[in-house]
């Protein structure tokens, strides 16, 4: 089992949820075409994610705050940045997100096809994130175009193309931060300015660090929220019982748990990388120092050793082992914000409609490696 590692695995063009479902029963770990060691099972992913000493986050040559940091530097950055995601810090944004969602659903057609990943997910994510950060609405088209380019570059697997897309995004961020930098005292009183005035270990963040933080707060997240919305709409259309139950009115805790469980079954945030700091023995194999290891969240979230029927919707039973937001020191700091945004989007979608169903005669399209979830979720809002 673990000592047989298939060669020449190439996930290109495959739906990674289906592909890892095929691999996981026979393999704890596989090597992909890049030579990365991909951990497929829940226990192994948890072990590596929880052990930041042996599995380092320093996987990129680019500065990534806090993602690419280890040890004390990582702890210090998280101590500062996690304060932006407390319930208290997020509470003022709830009515703002709700207004954005209401306007969006009011503008969408009834009876015609709505494509949930773009028309709902991407539009809502860009507007909500811009409102949260205090970014002007005229950046919306740039951010939407960037999201599409980013997905295309990720899909191409061409690192030089992803580097161009990353630098395009930095330019968008710089166009927002540079004018504030010239007179920070007079800058608009919003979250971006607050971050620029903030300190880590008693010193202000450098401009490079600010850009990196904002990139991680928006770049990675806009696409994830859009993909999550696509998965949620597809699930509601496929599961009338769950849709009916949520329409009957459930409290926030029950709705949040339902959303987390849908995302566990079909986790569009596929994986993260680590680099071994020493020779390690994990998933039954010896991996050398300096090797790249992938923690496959989507696969681990469907491991039958933990979730006996991975497709069964059972929020109460499965919450404890759900890995949608990761685990260990790098666990997602943005979870409370993502949870709030997704809750508001689903609540307002249900309030603005009598039913959400698949658009007749149209096909949903899955995303393929290295993107997760759906590319297209054509639905009809009634
Ligand atoms: C849609 C929902 C989201 C999902 C499924 C998600 C998932 C994850 C996961 C699995 C990790 C762990 C990464 C690792 O261990 O290497 C992570 C980390 C992270 N997430 Fe999220 N996330 C989401 C939304 C957000 C939002 C809204 C933000 C911020 C605005 C955010 C910011 C971050 C950052 C900065 C990290 C790195 C933390 C660190 O390295 O210490 N995420 N996220």
From TrEMBL:
Organism, by scientific name, is Propioniciclava sinopodophylli
Identify the InterPro entries for this entry.
Cyt_P450, Cyt_P450_sf
Pfam families linked to this entry: p450
Question: What's an example of a GO molecular-function annotation for this chain?
Answer: iron ion binding
Which protein family is it in? Answer: Belongs to the cytochrome P450 family.
Q: What is this protein called?
A: Cytochrome P450
């Amino acid at each position: 089992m673990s000592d047989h590692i298939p060669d020449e695995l190439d996930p290109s063009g495959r739906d990674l949820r289906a592909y890892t479902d095929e691999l996981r029963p026979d393999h704890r770990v596989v090597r992909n075409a890049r030579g990365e060691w991909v951990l497929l099972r829940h226990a192994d992913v948890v072990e590596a994610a929880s052990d930041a000493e042996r599995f380092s986050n320093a996987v990129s040559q680019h500065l990534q705050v806090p993602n690419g940091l280890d040890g004390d530097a990582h702890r210090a950055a998280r101590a500062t940045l996690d304060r932006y995601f407390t319930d208290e810090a997020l509470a003022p944004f709830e009515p703002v997100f709700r207004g954005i969602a209401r306007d969006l659903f009011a503008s969408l057609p009834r009876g015609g096809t709505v494509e949930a990943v773009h028309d709902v997910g991407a539009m809502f994510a860009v507007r909500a994130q811009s409102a949260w950060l205090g970014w002007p609405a005229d950046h919306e088209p740039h951010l939407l175009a960037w999201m599409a380019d980013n997905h295309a570059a990720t899909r191409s697997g061409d690192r030089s193309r992803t580097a161009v897309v990353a630098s395009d995004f930095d330019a968008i961020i710089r166009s927002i931060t540079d004018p504030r930098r010239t007179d920070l005292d007079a800058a608009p009183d919003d979250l971006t300015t607050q971050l620029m005035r903030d300190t880590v270990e008693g010193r202000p963040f450098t401009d490079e660090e600010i850009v990196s933080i904002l990139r991680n707060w928006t770049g990675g997240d806009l696409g994830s929220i859009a993909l999550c919305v696509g998965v949620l709409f597809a699930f509601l259309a496929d599961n009338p019982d769950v849709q009916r139950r949520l329409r009957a009115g459930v409290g926030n805790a029950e709705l949040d748990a339902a959303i987390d469980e849908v995302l566990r079954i079909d986790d569009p945030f596929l994986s993260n990388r680590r680099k071994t700091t020493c020779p390690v023995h994990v998933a039954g194999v010896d991996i050398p120092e300096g090797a790249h290891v992938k923690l496959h969240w989507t696969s681990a979230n469907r491991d039958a050793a933990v979730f006996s029927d991975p497709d069964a919707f059972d929020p109460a039973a499965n919450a404890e082992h759900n890995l949608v937001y990761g685990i260990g020191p790098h666990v997602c700091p943005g979870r409370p914000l993502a949870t709030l945004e997704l809750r508001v989007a689903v609540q307002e979608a249900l309030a603005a409609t009598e039913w959400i169903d698949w658009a007749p005669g149209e096909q949903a399209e899955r995303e393929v490696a290295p993107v997760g979830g759906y590319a297209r979720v054509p639905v009809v809002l009634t």
